[in-house]
């Protein structure tokens, strides 16, 4: 159902089924398509749409029909993630589209909400199907194993999946260590067995001021 055309355009072939995508991300379609804007608050999909604590808004649309629909957003690189009954945790700004059959919601993330524009919650996607996530530059998929925990700068974090525990540790960021920042900051520590997606371009964060 999901396929990439190049690295920055997602093509979704539909035969009467539906896909949920970031509002305004449709760039072209053929065949017969119907578009419906989804909004509100609460649990499930609506919980993904509204971040109450910060006022962050993420509007989602449902596309249903027969044909092919193409999606893109600000020339971001797109990565396909196959879910087999597991759960994907992804920053809301990095989620482009999901199979309509996947369940979406939110989870509290604590300090990682200090990343500007990402609120105190992150989006969860679970079930069987595909999701498309975006990155600023080609994403790197890093494995976390019980023997090798992974430390990630919060500005570079996109998503993670698998049996992974995350925690936050204080200390200098990588930029501060090399004299490019100031003040105490935090990093995200991942332990367990799973995958972490990071991007080569960091979001601005206020971590250096914590």
TL;DR?
5% of the residues lie in helices and 59% in strands.
CATH A-level architecture: 4-Layer Sandwich
Structural class: mainly beta
* CATH class assignment: Alpha Beta
Sheet of most strands = 12 strands, antiparallel
End-to-end Cα distance, whole Å, is 43 Å
Beta percentage is: over 45%
Kindly report the CATH topology. Answer: Double-stranded beta-helix
Number of domains: 1
Q: How many β-strand stretches?
A: 14
* Count of alpha/pi helices: 2
CATH superfamily: Mitochondrial biogenesis AIM24
Uncertain parts: 40-56, 111-119, 206-210
Shape annotation: elongated
Radius of gyration: 17 Å
Pfam families: AIM24
InterPro entries: AIM24, AIM24_sf, Trp_RNA-bd_attenuator-like_dom
Protein name: AIM24 family protein
Written overview of the protein:
This protein has 2 helices and 14 strands. It has helices spanning 44-49, 174-177; strands at 2-5, 9-22, 26-38, 50-51, 56-57, 60-71, 77-90, 95-99, 103-108, 121-135, 140-144, 150-152, 157-171, 185-198. By secondary structure, the protein is mainly β. It has one domain (2-209): Double-stranded beta-helix, CATH 3.60.160. The longest helix is centred in the N-terminal third of the chain and has 6 residues, at 44-49. A hairpin with a 3-residue loop joins β1 (2-5) and β2 (9-22).
């Amino acid at each position: 159902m999901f396929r990439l055309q190049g690295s920055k355009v997602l093509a979704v072939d539909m035969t009467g089924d539906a896909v949920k995508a970031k509002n305004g991300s449709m760039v072209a379609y053929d065949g017969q398509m119907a578009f419906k804007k989804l909004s509100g608050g609460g649990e499930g999909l609506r919980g993904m749409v509204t971040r109450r604590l910060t006022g962050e808004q993420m509007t989602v649309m449902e596309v249903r029909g027969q044909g092919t629909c193409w999606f893109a957003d600000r020339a971001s690189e797109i990565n396909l993630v196959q879910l087999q009954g597991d759960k994907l945790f992804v920053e809301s700004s990095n989620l482009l589209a999901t199979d309509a059959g996947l369940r979406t919601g939110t989870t509290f993330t604590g300090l990682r909400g200090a990343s500007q524009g990402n609120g105190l919650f992150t989006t969860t996607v679970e079930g069987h199907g595909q999701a498309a996530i975006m990155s600023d530059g080609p994403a790197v998929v890093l494995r976390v194993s019980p023997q090798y925990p992974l430390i990630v700068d919060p500005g570079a974090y996109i998503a993670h999946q698998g049996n992974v525990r995350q925690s936050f540790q204080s200390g200098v960021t990588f930029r501060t260590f090399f004299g490019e920042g100031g003040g105490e900051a935090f990093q995200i520590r991942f332990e367990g067995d799973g995958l972490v997606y990071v991007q080569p371009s960091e979001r601005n964060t206020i971590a250096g001021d914590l």
